[in-house]
Sequence to fold (786 residues):
Amino acid sequence: MKALFAFWIAHRGELAALLGQHVMLVTASTAVAVAAGVPLGIFSARRPRLASPLIGLASVVQTIPSLAMFGFLLPVPLIGGVGARAALVVLILYGLLPIVRTTIAGLRSIDPAIREAGVAMGMTPRELLRQVELPLALPSIVAGVRVAAVVAVGSATIAAAIGAGGLGEYIYRGLSMVDTTVILAGAIPAALLALTVDAGLLWVERQLSVRRRSPRRRAAAAGAALVAAVVLLTSGVAARRTSGAIIVGSKNFTEQLVLGELVAQIIERDAGMPVHRRLNLGGTLICDGALLTGDLDVYVEYTGTALTAVFHAPISTDEAAVFDTVRNLYAKTGRTLLPPLGFNNTFAILVRGADARALGLRTIDDAARQSPRWRAGFGYEFVERPDGYAGLAKVYGLRFPEPPRVMDLTLSYRALASGQVDLIAGDATAGLIKALDLTPLDDNRHYFPPYDAAPVARAETLLRYPAVRRALEKLSGKISADDMRALNHAADVEHRDISTIAREFIEARITRESRTSR
Amino acid sequence: MPVPAIEFRDVSFTRPGGLRVLDRFSLTVESGDVLALVGRSGSGKTTVLKLVNRLLLPDAGAVLVEGRDTREWEPIRLRRRVGFVLQDVGLFPHLNVAANVGVVPRLEGWSPERTTARVDELLDLVGLGAQTVAGRWPDELSGGQRQRVGVARALAIDPPVLLMDEPFGALDPLTRAELHTEFRRIQQRVRKSVVIVTHDMGEAFALGDRVGVLEGGRLIAYDRPDLVAASREPLVRRLLDALPVVPRGPVSEAPGPEGDERGAASAR
Fold:
């Protein structure tokens, strides 16, 4: 509890910004969903033949898990990609259903005699809608808006996976660091926000449907809702980062967060450019797609990963050859692979230290002999990648009695340590290996390609801002495998703040050395 | 001779289901007259009203309002010249009494001052104190008060024609009798051309300058009340015996005319 408050106080600026982004996402998406959903509801309430298929379609959309929806939108031009725009599209789609549905329900629940009275009095359809039907359906519509807004608060936390910002960043960061405090730092404000939105709109709804409404009271409710919307929107707009900045990305595990932060800070320090951080993106292909569309300017990739997962080129184990191949492939698609940072983050096939000692395990071959008695657990990517599980099992003849359990990469370390699985594929540079007493096995058949970490950037950006290239090159060869393990350890095990870790590393290793070399 | 307020010329009307509701139906309402149209449920009384303000159009024949075919009337204009009072009143629940009565004046673009003055005048006319009820909500009124507000609303911009669809059907007998008196008083002052639809013969006799009896889509009697009451036409007689008589407790449709026939006849 203390740690949580300490975290909030230390990160109050960032917390405010993330909260602002979150509120912005929710308010803007709900506003658009209302603007589109209410007319759509009015339209279909009058055409029953249209209403059921429309509601059906909206229900289907609603059942698509939000993470999958973000995934579907990644390759879509204009509305897709990564960042707030794609997130807004998804949130709007989710918000439409409840609003359309309650608009239809509200209009249909109106006593036909009342509608008939309006028509008989000589109201035009428009007058009837504005003076009779909409006012009577309003409480029901507001109930739909309430549902939409609360859903949006929840879905927006997931939007952090595609770099839309918001409180979900803390949740993802906490998950990748396996740090409950950080998860709570995002989850608690998000929950409070949801409760506030719910209670606020419930109040508005009540004001609109109380038995004895006075015009003043209705005006007060409408006014309060309007003021709240304006305040939320402006705070959201104010929280938006400046454009024209260099956008630095990272994948969603600790090492990538540290590397993303290092890249961001070196650009801020040495190139003097504003940086917009889109860290914690949900995987290699999201980062790659974002780099192609210009949603990212730079992130750190691993050569072997680029070779296999991005370009689907044949696996090679020659370090220099892989680097050259990947650099050429990137160059053909308008991207520049900068010199490697200095460490190879290969996959480490890990077992518990106790097992390794008891059974005398040193190589993956040794482990393969145990595999019929073991359970394996792998991250999502490892199961799918061409340089992942399928090839590994073939090369080493792994025969697990049941298919490997698929889980979050970071959680798999804990799962191994706690005995839920017996073998995992982790990162060679993970800080948790030492902290949890895990033993990496030797890849004695040389299955894995080299995974040299190197920044990859949009060529266009580097041409426009040569200072960015010079800043990035300062990291070349500066981070050894030991350095990376120490950095990961500081974040994962010591739970230290990632931006502080990065700053200290840059001050100790980069600026000082460049000063002495001068 | 002045143009009749309402004229039905050989009007036929068939419901979408294929049921013929009116069959070569003809009728004339002179300006300033009250026509009480009696018939049992489903006899087409409400259809007659809806044909007048063009909520429905006839399949054959013509309905003329102030000498003009309803097909030629612009529907919105027509409906604003024809006040309509519904059985369940249809007051707008989100508007207070004053706002309900002022709906049509506002639609017509009257100034707020003129509307307020007119609303006060109308509430006064229907025997409701403007100060006491103007700010109330429809669900705070008694059934009788609601009906009065409905009449006030229908008269708001002084339309020459007033249609009333079983306006007093849902009221208790005492309130009903009271409102009958009120109606006659108001009609003496405003002199509208009125069509009032009821299934209650007694009510028709109490209110109509003329009484029409509707059966099987045709008008089987149409005359001064005393003449209709004395009619020897067998169908009219049967209806006279079958229909409930005022005052005799709240009207209930449930037992059906057959079950009540004997009792009603002996009470007479």
Observations:
- Residues 246-268 of chain B have pLDDT under 50 and may be disordered.
- Strands of chain B lie at 6-14, 20-29, 34-38, 60-65, 68-69, 82-85, 161-165, 193-198, 210-215, 218-223.
